[in-house]
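Quick question: what would this complex look like in 3D?
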Amino acid sequence: MHRLNFVYKREVEQLKLKIKRLDWSTGNAIVGILNTKDAGKLNTHRGDRILVKKKKNCIIATVDESLSYIKEGEIGLNYEAVSALKGKNKSEVEVEASTAPDAVNYIREKLNGERLSKKKIQAIIEGIVDNSLSTIEITYFVASSYVNGLSLDETAFLTEAMYQTGDILRFNAKKVVDKHCIGGVAGNRTTPIIVAIAAAAGLTIPKSSSRSITSPAGTADVLEVLCNVEISKNDILRIVNQTKGCMIWGGTVSLAPADDEIIRIEHPMNIDSLEQMVASVLAKKKSVSGNIVLIDIPIGRYAKIKNRKEGERLKRLFNSISKRIGLETEVVFTKALGPIGRGIGPALEARDVLRIFEGHPEAPRDLREKGLRLAGRLLELAKKAKKGEGYKEAKKLMQDGRANRKFWEILKAQGAKVSNSSDILIGKFRTRFRAEKDGKIRLIRNDLIAQAAKIAGAPKDKKAGIYLKKLRMEKVRKNQVVFELYAESRKKLQKAIKYIKQNNPYIIK
Amino acid sequence: MHRLNFVYKREVEQLKLKIKRLDWSTGNAIVGILNTKDAGKLNTHRGDRILVKKKKNCIIATVDESLSYIKEGEIGLNYEAVSALKGKNKSEVEVEASTAPDAVNYIREKLNGERLSKKKIQAIIEGIVDNSLSTIEITYFVASSYVNGLSLDETAFLTEAMYQTGDILRFNAKKVVDKHCIGGVAGNRTTPIIVAIAAAAGLTIPKSSSRSITSPAGTADVLEVLCNVEISKNDILRIVNQTKGCMIWGGTVSLAPADDEIIRIEHPMNIDSLEQMVASVLAKKKSVSGNIVLIDIPIGRYAKIKNRKEGERLKRLFNSISKRIGLETEVVFTKALGPIGRGIGPALEARDVLRIFEGHPEAPRDLREKGLRLAGRLLELAKKAKKGEGYKEAKKLMQDGRANRKFWEILKAQGAKVSNSSDILIGKFRTRFRAEKDGKIRLIRNDLIAQAAKIAGAPKDKKAGIYLKKLRMEKVRKNQVVFELYAESRKKLQKAIKYIKQNNPYIIK
């Protein structure tokens, strides 16, 4: 009956309309704006689907209605839709009502608590990528996956479908290594250290990172202080084949695009299930042909994962899904007792990284140590060091300058913007915070430091942020400077000072 | 911390932009289209919220981005948004990033399986009505209510919030009666019969009905053949105060507007939980100040409610929620063995109704009987008839012509388009279907009849549909005409014939 209805609609209700090309973005969903009268003729309503055809090219769009901006006989389509049709302004197109794709039925099954097969999850992810599913329908999928949960099978199917529906970068290497930190710790910029050491050891490590969404800096924001991070697919292939590594922003290339759309829909509710997180991380790794992956899960009271038990659950999930999709994944737990490194904010974090390679006296030892430990573990996994000797090997690569040379080789391939740590400019408005008594620093509140850096302007103001002069467990005397605050405007500096006065991030006892 | 962040954003990131007025509708959500550069300056992304202010007027909009159609310094806003700001094209407005309303947190709680308080449900429904919630967020609410279910308390809070956030029509009457059928049965046009009898008995019955969404005719589609159904709030008040009744399309007035938005979001998934259905029906009744309500639940294998057990569940829910919101509701179960009445499709159903009032020989007895029984029950509930004597009283009002006079009084007040049943034109393309053998009609498949009428063009083609010459349990001889098919085009007639040949709706044994 369903099918018959479709045939009926296809053959009977069809209009010839002229394109009115509109230039704005409507998320990923393609919207076709019809005059209300034409919408009536097609027997469609706002939110229904139409098929728009121009010769052999065909797109599915969601109907929106206009009373007069779009005239009778016109269809408003945005730039991407017009390109996909190989049309132009005023081209004639054929428009007809269309039924929902099968994927809508599968989403309904998920809403009703059913488990979805590989085929069904693939259909949903394809529908996200080819725009045949509307934002409302994708939201139902995300919401029902969140509430009803995803089984191990479903999570694996989802991961596979997500990378298979996007570009896959392939390199001239059998072993492609990668690392990922699930985040939630201020500073903690281990990526450049690990990439440099791994590549220096001869491993291929095409690292893509994200920009900040809610934190004072994402790895891509930090790297952008040092070099270009928006790099085309061809340039990535060239740079990695030449230097073995790269450190780019993942948003430029279309890797696992369904994942980006799902993240866009999760964003307003700030929800993120463990299953969705694991699928998202591992799909991105498969998109760059990764086969050996190190996952860093920081555990701490003020981090994303609060305790060992939660961490173990996430670890099991990473391991199970990795096994199913053919990834060798090692999960390590790290302690998140406070920020890692001294700088918080793009420029300040970039300076920390350069100082570590330079062996600068102020280089943060905690960040260096964490970077070396993770890099060492990766060397062991990829058989570049014997078990138990990875750290030693990583340290050697750092100390003898090979990691530093590799790091600059990659930076230069990506268009380096600086040549050493003293080139990095920090916000011109600054203030110092001093210890209110003698004692030992027992805790630096990760969450409060991050928030203060954001109020000061990070990540948008790259030179804004916080610089920790004293680290955890160090002794301080009254009136000694414990941290510095930087901003690019006096107003933001004052806001941040006000916030810090109400929310003291240093606990001295 | 949340609050401080808000203060920070309010005071620092603000742009003065000029309105570019756009004329199209984007559902209920207000969208503000920013040039990508301005979106960056405000540190907002697609889907984030902005506050748009012009003097004392202020709206919340969801951000969309444009590369060049909206220039730097402009903000694209649609007609409704510009009106709400009391602005015009090129007016200057102040735009700033805004945080999500508390309602978003309550929706997240519902996603996480929590029960929501009255205050929280009210905040969500207010957010739907004042457009401060985006389509994605409302979808999360609908999806999580569907998957996690709504408790009795939550359903009652939802019902109350829905009618309290819309217009409430008040009439000069202590008792306002109403009826509702949950649908799923072809034909079954009892509303005009019940309204006429109840009003003739002196009861106030301001009946609003819906148009078809998936069926071959909604009550409003049928009534539109006879009179005007799109009537303003003031005219409804005047007509009901004058005649005691009306029969209008509910879409013209803003009764329980949140309900309309929720239905819009349910539509693509074709989901409808019992709780949502009960809240929707009862909120609309409270919106017209109804206090005595009769609910008709047809039960049958091919109807919406398949068996008595499901029916009982729905009945309990109607009764519980009615009690909590101060409605006297009576639920009756009716048998749905097949279509009710002879005509299926707007004009054919309208003709059936007029013929019943006229006492025409072809008037469908089953529809007349059902109408009289339901009207009788309503007379008893409203104390216009003793218990057990309602049917007799309803029949008297029908037979002595008072119901007929009242019916025409209301039709005329609504601008009658016809004066008797022979004025009603039926589709000019027609064909007859004959019995393939002697026997008794055991079943007329409700679902197949409805689908065939839709393929023939109903409800858009008002004169299209099916007319049942022979009803259930009647004896037929081979080659006797059992039903007729009508359409407004030869093409649609042939499609419907093809469908009927593959899906025979008459079972003769």
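Answer marked as accepted. Chain B touches chain A through 61 residues (CB under 8 Å).
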